[in-house]
């Protein structure tokens, strides 16, 4: 394709067009302005919603402000996670080292806020100057008698995806360190829901209606004690597989807890998530409760979706999101409201994920891995998309091209998961696509 970097050929695929399949999971290509964030950012977005922990960024202030309140992750209790603490490293620390600064900051913050645990994030400059973050954390943990976990996530090591793995390892070090929570015979951990706009609370309610206990939500509305007890659940239900598969696999190896991948976006996948969990527990009563729940929800939801479906019929959407499971759910959810997906891309999908994505897309759909603004703009022009679904970095692409935008990333303030979320999603898509503002914008294609 003209204007595109030749070395990215294998990461771009048109369904029904080129014969090769899409290769995912590759490091970003130098010269391609990847939409992926850094390793530190990846670790921070995963751990951030643990609300009763201290999150201290050991680095220059920019790393902390870049990730300050990075998710719309809500808490039903403490909100310590929403403060962005930093050791604020300066030139003198780069020359003489920042360990003393880190030690003092940890003492001061733990004394002031009494967190249940502390996560210390190592950033690029800390990796360069070689501060021994782990030994400072070990020392403070002993002195303060709380877990103090070094998250060795220097930004330059790779991409956001590597940060996910580091965050999972940090949590794995907490899991199995407490056994005091009461658990039922049917208990699960929810992995990879971050309680954006309170979505986790809706899901928790569904599972409660089925008689299932959520032992730990990792990490939305997360609590240190729940995570410490997470090894006692019967099942891990993994949503954002890109960020949490490593933890699910670790827990399977260490504690024998099986896991299943689900998605809570769109009617089909939301209902499957409930049915699959009911099936796991082999309880007819739980399955009946799941069926009743789905029936109740759909009886209300389907008629309310109908007007949106009529209004949106024939519209075309571009999707560029973090993980492939979300992209797959979005293709299905859009189809339900009459919208065709013409571009489907992700930052962190692997080759297997893209095979699944390809299978549910229509012919002509462009699939892309680890894309950049030039490519995405070009694809929108080629396909004539009316709507872009993405995150903060894709919003300007859509607006500059004069098309609607729906925020489906971790900054969003609107619940889009579950049945209620499906209705919000349809409304959001309708409102942005049919906004009168577009009549004043001259489309550049
Ligand atoms: S790339 Fe390095 S300096 Fe930039 S935000 Fe990430 S950790 Fe901080």
TrEMBL record:
Keyword NAD listed: no
Pfam families: Oxidored_nitro
GO biological process, one term: protein-containing complex assembly
InterPro entries: Nase/OxRdtase_comp1 (IPR000510), Nase_comp1_CS (IPR000318), NifE (IPR005973), NifE-like (IPR049939)
Gene Ontology molecular function, alphabetical: nitrogenase activity
Coiled-coil ranges per UniProt: none
Pathway the protein contributes to: Cofactor biosynthesis; Fe-Mo cofactor biosynthesis
Gene3D superfamilies reported for this sequence: Nitrogenase MoFe cofactor biosynthesis protein NifE, C-terminal (3.40.50.12380), Nitrogenase molybdenum iron protein domain (3.40.50.1980)
Keywords: Nitrogen fixation
Keyword Transmembrane: no
PROSITE patterns in the record: NITROGENASE_1_1, NITROGENASE_1_2
Domain Nitrogenase/oxidoreductase component intervals: 38-433
Family statement: Belongs to the NifD/NifK/NifE/NifN family.
Biological role: This protein may play a role in the biosynthesis of the prosthetic group of nitrogenase (FeMo cofactor).
NCBIfam families: nifE (TIGR01283)
Protein name: Nitrogenase iron-molybdenum cofactor biosynthesis protein NifE
Species for this entry: Dysgonomonas capnocytophagoides
Lineage of origin: Bacteria, Pseudomonadati, Bacteroidota, Bacteroidia, Bacteroidales
């Amino acid at each position: 394709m003209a204007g595109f970097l030749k070395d990215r050929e294998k990461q771009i695929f048109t369904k029904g067009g080129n014969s090769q399949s899409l290769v995912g999971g590759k490091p970003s290509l130098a010269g391609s302005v990847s939409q992926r964030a850094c390793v530190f950012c990846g670790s921070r977005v995963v751990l951030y919603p643990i609300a009763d922990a201290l999150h201290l960024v050991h680095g220059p202030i920019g790393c902390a402000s870049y990730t300050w309140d990075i998710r719309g992750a809500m808490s039903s209790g403490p909100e310590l996670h929403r403060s962005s603490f930093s050791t604020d490293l300066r030139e003198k620390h780069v020359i003489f080292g920042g360990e003393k600064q880190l030690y003092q900051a940890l003492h001061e913050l733990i004394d002031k806020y009494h967190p249940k645990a502390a996560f210390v994030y190592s950033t690029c400059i800390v990796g360069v100057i070689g501060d021994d973050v782990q030994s400072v954390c070990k020392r403070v943990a002993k002195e303060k008698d709380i877990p103090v976990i070094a998250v060795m996530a220097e930004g330059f090591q790779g991409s956001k995806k590597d940060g996910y793995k580091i965050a999972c390892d940090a949590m794995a070090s907490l899991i199995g360190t407490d056994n005091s929570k009461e658990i039922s015979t049917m208990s699960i951990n929810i992995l990879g829901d971050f309680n954006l706009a309170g979505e986790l609370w809706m899901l928790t309610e569904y599972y409660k209606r089925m008689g299932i206990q959520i032992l730990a939500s990792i990490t939305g509305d997360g609590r240190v004690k729940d995570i410490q007890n997470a090894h006692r659940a019967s099942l891990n239900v993994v949503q954002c597989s890109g960020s949490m598969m490593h933890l699910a696999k670790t827990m399977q190896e260490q504690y024998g807890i099986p896991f299943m991948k689900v998605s809570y976006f769109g009617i089909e996948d939301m209902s499957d998530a409930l049915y699959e969990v009911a099936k796991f527990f082999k309880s007819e009563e739980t399955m009946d409760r799941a069926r009743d729940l789905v029936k109740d929800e759909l009886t209300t939801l389907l008629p309310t979706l109908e007007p949106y479906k009529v209004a949106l019929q024939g519209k075309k959407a571009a999707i560029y999101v973090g993980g492939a499971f979300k992209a797959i759910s979005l293709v299905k959810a859009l189809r339900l409201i009459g919208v065709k997906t013409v571009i489907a891309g992700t930052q962190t999908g692997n080759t297997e994920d893209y095979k699944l994505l390809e299978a549910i897309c229509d012919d002509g759909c462009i699939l892309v891995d680890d894309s950049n603004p030039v490519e995405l703009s070009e694809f929108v022009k080629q396909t004539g998309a009316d709507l872009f679904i993405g995150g903060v970095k894709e919003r300007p692409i859509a607006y500059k091209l004069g098309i609607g935008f729906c925020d489906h990333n971790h900054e969003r303030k609107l619940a889009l998961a579950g049945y209620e979320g499906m209705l919000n999603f349809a409304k959001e898509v309708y409102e942005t696509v049919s906004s009168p503002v577009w009549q004043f914008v001259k489309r550049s294609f």
